Structure formats: C-alpha cells, structure tokens
Sequence to fold (582 residues):
Amino acid sequence: MGAETRRKSRGRTGGSTLSGRGLRKSYGDFEAVKGVDFEVYAGECFGFLGPNGAGKTSTMKMIYAAAVPTGGELSVVGLDVIRHDREVKRRIGVVPQENNLDEGLKVRENLLVYGRYFDLPRKLVLQRADELLDFVQLTEKAEAKVESLSGGMKRRLLIARALVNDPDLVVLDEPTTGLDPQARHLVWDKLRELAREGKTLILTTHYMEEAARLCDRLVIMEGGDIIARGSPGELVREHVSPQVLEFRSDPASLTALRPILEEAADSVEEGGSVEALLAFTRDADAIMERVRESGIKVENIVHRGSGLEDVFMRLTGRRLAD
Amino acid sequence: MQGGIKIPSPRGAFRVWQRNLTIFKKYWKSIMFPNFVEPLLYLGALGLGLGTFIRQGGINGQDYVAFIAPGLLASNAMFAASFESTFDTFVKLRFDKVYDAIITTPVNAEDVVAGEYLWAGTRSALYGTAFLVVLVALGLVSSPWAVLVPPALLLIGIMFSVMGTLFTSLIHQIDYFSYYFTLVITPLFLVSGIFFPVDDFPAPVPQVAWFTPLYHAVNVCRALASGPSPVVLVDVAWILVFTAVLALVPIQIMRRRLVS
Fold:
C-alpha cells in the first residue's frame, strides 16, 4: 500500500490543503451538494468519483470560487474561499471540464495571456510557457491556432495553462472525459508526474480505472452525498470480496443459477445492463465446482479481481460510467 | 450568500482590457475597416447628397456636411461600443467561454465586465480618432478643441458599453440583439440631433431628447469640433452621472451568470 504510506507521511508534513465541512450547494429547489465533509492533505491526489449529476462539478466549482456555497465551510490552501477568492485563485490551477481555451490566441499566447491574469512578470511567464509546452509535449504546436489542436492536445494545453502560476493545488474536473485511450494515457502520465513533483491534485472522474490508477484517496459521491471514502484498496477491501465471477447466460439459466451462487458466494449481484450475475468470493474454485455439479448451462464465465467499479455497484446498485 | 455589491478591481479590469488589446492587435485591420468606412458613407450620402438640397447657409450657419460630421463621430462611437458589448460580449460569455476561463484566475467576474467597458470605450476612441483625422483633412473640423474628441469618445463608448452590457446580461439568446438595435440604437441614431437640430422642435421633443444618451454625446462632439461653450459641461456631467449610476448594474447581473 505505497499510496497510503505516502499519504500518511505527506499528511504529517504538508497538513490540510483543502477542507470542506457540511458543504452545501443548491440551485433553486435543487440540492446539488447536500452537506459533504472532506479533507485533502498536501501532496496527495484526491478523487471525487461519481456518475453525472452526483455533485462533483458543483463541488469543484465551489473550490475554485466559480460557485458560491449555499452553506457550510470550505477552506482552500488554508483560506476561506468566499472571503479570499482572489488569493485562493492565485494559488490554485484549474482544468475545467469544458474546453475554454482562448480561440483568438495561438497555443503559446494562451499561456502568456493567462499568466498576465496572475500578474506574473513577463520574463517568468515566457520561460514557464516554454517549459510547460515541453512538459505537455506541445512545443511544436506553440505557434499553432488552438482550433487546429486535437481533443487530447487541447486538454494537455488546458493542463499546461493551469500550471502557469505554479499552483500548490490543481483542480481537474473530468480531465480525460471524451479522450481516446492513447490521449487518456498521456494525460495520466502527466498527472502522475505532477503528483511526483509534490503537487496536490484534486480530480473528478467517472472512470473507475482512472481513479484506481491516480488517486491516493477518494470519495464516492451520489445524489449530492458522499457515500464512501478511502484509498482505492481500502474501499475494495471494505466493500467487496477480492474475487469476482461473472456468469453470462439466458435468463432461465441465470434464475436457476442464482440460489446456488447465493449459497456458495459471499454475495451475488445482477450485472448492470447485460444478462449476468456477479458472484463475489474469496474462493472462486469452490464456486466453479458447485456450478459444474449443478449442470446448468452457462455461456460465458469471467474470473477477475474485484475493483472500484464493483464497490460502486454494491453501494448504488448501478454502473458508474453509463 | 452572494454577499453585497461587487466593486471591480482596476488591476483585474486592466488585464481583461489587455487581453482584448492583444487580440485586437492581430486583427485590427479587418476589424476596423467597416466601422471606419460606415460614417464616411453617411457623410457622403447624406452630407453631400442631402446637403445639396439644404441651401441658405445650411444649419445654424454651417454647411450641412459640417453640421452632421461631429454627430457621426458620436454615433460611430455608439455603434462600436454597442457591437462590442452585445454580440462580442455574448460570444465570449456563451460560446467561447472566455470569461469562465478568466474567472478561475485572480481576475474576478466584476473585473471582467469593467475591463470590457474600458475596452469598448477604447475601441470607440480608436475608430473615432481615425474618423476624426479624415474630418480634419476634409476641413470639416477646425477647432483645436478637437484634441479632446478622443477622450470624449472613450467616455461615450463606455456609456454605450454599459447600456449594451446591461441588455446582454439579461438575454439568453443572441437573436434578441436585433430588438436592442432596432428599438434602442437606431432610434437614438435618428433623433439625437445628428441629422437635424432637435432643440428647434416643439415640446416635448427636446425634453425627451434630453433624457437620451446619444443626444448629449452629439452635443459634446459638436461643441468640441467647433469650439465649446460652457453649456457643454452639462452634457458631460449628464454622461458621467448616467454611466456611473448604471455601471454597477450589469456587473452584478453578469457576476451572477458567471458565478452560480
């Protein structure tokens, strides 16, 4: 559990960088965030996981002062966001969900103009712009128009832009949504590099794999509430058995199979949209043996380790990335 | 929790102004050309065309073309600032999300709006100054007071930017701007004393005109073009008070659109 040790040691030295207490956000009658508590320590990568509409983006917006909390407390880089919005924004970097690069400016100019918003000296911004373009592998595109960039390049430029002010904390709202797998891996590499450099990262995602790969700790949100929290490993250990057997077959066979699995496995769940049953267990062989004995026809069996997706299924009864 | 009236920071407003200047410097030739040519068309068509029929010493002893020229300076500033604060601002707000990006930095939403006011005023002054040079070359403006026209146009531009931004802050569809131009800007253009002196009309026309912004802008430009009388200070004061009173309203509304 490298991530957890790292978190603990960092937690002691870095202290709390972000903390929300009873944080609420309503839009009219709609409660987007219903009183959540969280604490992020300096140097860790912290994830907000949940389906669309869970309240992740509202929470992010409150953190970077683009939304005003309806209630509760929120302190970012040790400051109250509402009273010190400018100072907070001076010290954080934001990668928004929606691309909002300045289309009237070239790639490099986007960084230079953005740096001016922070009152950074021109010489420093020029130097940093080149370093950041190199970091996100866009040096060759420095003089290109923003509209000529691919989706993955735009996202990398957004990441570079968020780093212009050398922030203590980087907020990333769905940093890889809509990217192809290659572009996604490149973004992950960059985020891991930032984490290694000691930046505190906060990210939202609805990709389990992303959360499992990047986050030291995370919370799972649903309907404006935090429904679980911990490191990816802790969450899996706490909520599901280590192994999963996925049985796919026709409805009649699955109905027949169900009582057998329920007896032999730790727990059984229906597998989302496909006709499938998931059996969670510590001993997959024993279950396989029982299924073979029963003689029930099963079209397809997948044996795998359990993961965050299963935790989410267990907690909410549905798939995350639908 | 929104908490009180927001006052812009000059530093933040300057950064937004600077961003617009950076973009303007790249495209100024193509942006400026139509705005520059338009008043010349009015000057030619109405000043020379219609002016031919207005004999007997023109208006108040002036040639008709010399009468309308300073008024066109004012209306040109109005149009420049109005386009900037309506279509351009709406595109930045809704489509390009330029403001969403800016407000994640130490520049706040209120600074963004103030910066846009300043920029619209600057754009008005730039266009107007180019037009003024042409008027001087044509001998239509001769008073040394004309050096005060650019700062006057800056102020006039800011005033119309505040009005345009107020409208922009209230609408959610770009099509509604045709209402603003048809029902506000065009009537102002026609009845604010650019093409005929409003003051000679029977009541209540002069009284109504007194409550409209372009009327005072035209008075200021005309006074500076031909040598002012102290009465023009009333017009300047009117513009200052109107702008100051109205300026904070769009700032608050726009802030609510940008910061939920």
